[in-house]
Amino acid sequence: MSAVAGHGASVHIQNCGKTFPDGTQALAPASLDIVSGETLVLLGPSGCGKTTMLRIIAGLETPDAGGRVLFDTTDMTAVPIEQRHVGMVFQSYALFPNMTVAENIGYGLKIRGVDKSVRAARVAEMVALTNIGGLENRRIDQLSGGQRQRVALARAVAVRPRVLLLDEPLTALDASLRDRLRSELNSLLRSLGITAIYVTHDQAEAMELGDRIVVMRKGAIAQIGTPREIYFAPQNRFVAEFVGAANIVEGPVAGGRLTLPGGWLALDNAADNAAAVAMIRPETIGIVAEADAFLRGTVESVAFIGDRQRLVVTGAANQPLTVDAPNTINVRAGERVGLSVTPQAVRVLPKED
Amino acid sequence: MRDRLIFASQLGFTLLVAAFLVVPVVLSITAGVTVNYFRGIQSGVTLQWVVQVWNLYAGEIGLSFLIAFATLAVTLVVGVPAAYGLHVKGGRLSRVIEEIITLPLAIPGLAIALALLLTYGGFGGFRQSWLFILAGHVVFTMPFMVRSVMAVFASVDIKTLDEGAASLGASPWTRFCNVIVPNAMPGILAGSLMVVTLSLGEFNLTWMLHTPLTKTLPVGLADSYASMRLEVASAYTLIFFIMIVPLLVAMQMFAEKGETK
Ligand SMILES: Nc1ncnc2c1ncn2[C@@H]1O[C@H](COP(=O)(O)OP(=O)(O)OP(=O)(O)O)[C@@H](O)[C@H]1O
Ligand SMILES: [Mg+2]
User: Fold this and answer.
1) What is the pTM of this model?
2) Tag placement on chain A: N or C end, fewer CB within 10 Å?
3) Whose CA is nearest to atom 17 of ligand 1?
4) How many A×B Cβ pairs under 8 Å?
5) Mean pLDDT throughout B223-239?
């Protein structure tokens, strides 16, 4: 393992925007610093500019004038991709159909003029690392989707890139395989200690893999933070609703209390505001006896999901609240309940236009 | 019972159509080895016409093959990178260029020849050499090469493969050799087959462009039909056949091997 470990470069994106020749502005000028050895996830809905950002870092796309890309302290903006020493995993894998698995994995080393025996050893190491033993002499069209994904990863990592770039590498796989490969990928990235930039539109993937997550929206960065920050302290409504389930409630704040149709909620040092918007995660709302709570509502429906039950409570806020309750409590539709929420779990969001 | 009847009638029809096409060829070929066509095959079988044609037209035959393979070489060297460039670049300009390359398909060969004559007819050396015919053949066959290579590019997502190779450190030229050409092989082979066949059989354009010293097989054939006994012209057809059929079969096999590989 030590042979492949090693820290990658830090990546600095300065003022990189992208306007395509047809006038589409895929990316507004953005800046971003990626620490050496970190896994950074670019997360956002389709068309928000994730791939464009990744391709600018890779050197497959040049940023608009004024933008710069640095690896460590070297300006790479004008350096073509083949000299950037990156590893790239494409959504469609882009494996060479005219080569075997081993030839694919060894291609980058061959290009670099690495000695044949050294190459063979490194290929064997990659094959072991990605669990594809026995497939070395197969052709690409004789592999399953999951196997192709592993080969693509092995090929990208074999050259010991300074930065590993992955564009939705798991999207083409079915759900159960995706889950398994996700955790394999996670431990692989950790053990390699490589700088990795991972594009996905799947928030669960982002949470599991990312040291930090960059949430993107319409060509701009909506928030940068650790998975916990993104989840518990979203800075705006878009992030709150895109990452996980969120209840958005609206009402006036006065004296540290948010007043809602069904009562009030205590807040953590919140300024007075005639029309505040706040977010509450469904699993942070506790179901208590009506008499014990300052916020009350009526259970509209109960859905038993196994590990928990999902209630919809009306009358408490201006919109029905979703509550993830433990699977042990006994509530029925139509029942009146009290809702308890700690002040820390209520996140007041900034006003949006 | 009814199925058998249908099958029999279909078979009969197919054979009839085949016969309609094959009989003239067979007749023509037998005429080439008959001593006197008007008295029929009982007049005797001979190779004298074949020998006579060979003596008269060996030069044309050689030139035909020279031009066919030179055309192939030019369409390969120009057409494959052009197809790659057009595919990768995309956009409106690429489509316009593609249309222009394809244009000679729709324009009669005579018109192309006329245009070439008008433009380059004054350059004596060029006009009188076989390179003039080569130029015509390249214009005429280029769309077939470019189109069949582009069709493959569209089906194998060559752009992403190219980017994949680039990310692994390969220079544009290395990528072209290692990734683009091998993956475009089925299209290149199919295109080559087409180019050679078309060049060997091309008549319209070549007839306009040829000089007494630069004649290809089909032009020579027209010549001998017009000016010599029927037996000679038929012997010519026979030679044409003997030369071309094995070549085409070989290329076809080569192309199929490339596809299933
Ligand atoms: N070559 C191009 N020319 C013009 N517009 C483009 C080009 N490539 C991408 N775009 C546009 O730029 C925007 C961002 O595209 P991008 O591929 O970065 O999105 P994405 O976040 O990766 O989306 P997805 O999750 O669907 O892959 C989109 O609106 C897209 O249509
Ligand atoms: Mg994308």
Assistant:
1) 0.81
2) C
3) A51
4) 63
5) 79
Number of domains in chain B: 1
Q: What is the pLDDT of residues A262-300, one digit of tens each?
A: 999 999 878 888 889 999 999 999 999 998 899 999 999
Average pLDDT over every residue of B117-135 = 82
List the domain boundaries for chain A.
Answer: 11-238, 247-349
Report residue A148: phi and psi, to 5°. Answer: -60, -40
Question: pLDDT tens digits for B74-109?
Answer: 999 999 999 988 888 877 888 888 888 888 888 888
Ligand 1 pocket residues where CB is under 6 Å: A 20, 22, 24, 26, 44, 46-52, 201
Residue B252 has pLDDT above 80, yes or no: no
Minimal CA separation from A264 to chain B, in Å: 56
B59 part of a folded domain? yes
CATH code for the domain of B97: 1.10.3720.10
Q: Is the separation of the CB atoms in A227 and A39 below 8 Å? A: no
Q: What is the ipTM of this complex?
A: 0.84
* Residue span of the structural domain in which B125 resides: 50-260
Backbone angles phi, psi at A109, to 5 degrees: -70, -40
Considering the domain A11-238, what is its CATH architecture? 3-Layer(aba) Sandwich (3.40)
User: CB contact, 8 Å: A108 with chain B?
Assistant: yes
Mutation to probe ligand 1, out of A16, A19, A22, A24 (largest number of atoms < 8 A from CB): A24
CATH architecture of A247-349: Beta Barrel (2.40)
Report chain A residues whose CB lies below 8 A from the CB of B163: 60, 81, 88, 90, 94
B91 reaches A (C-beta below 8 A): yes
A58 has a chain B CB within 8 A of its CB: yes
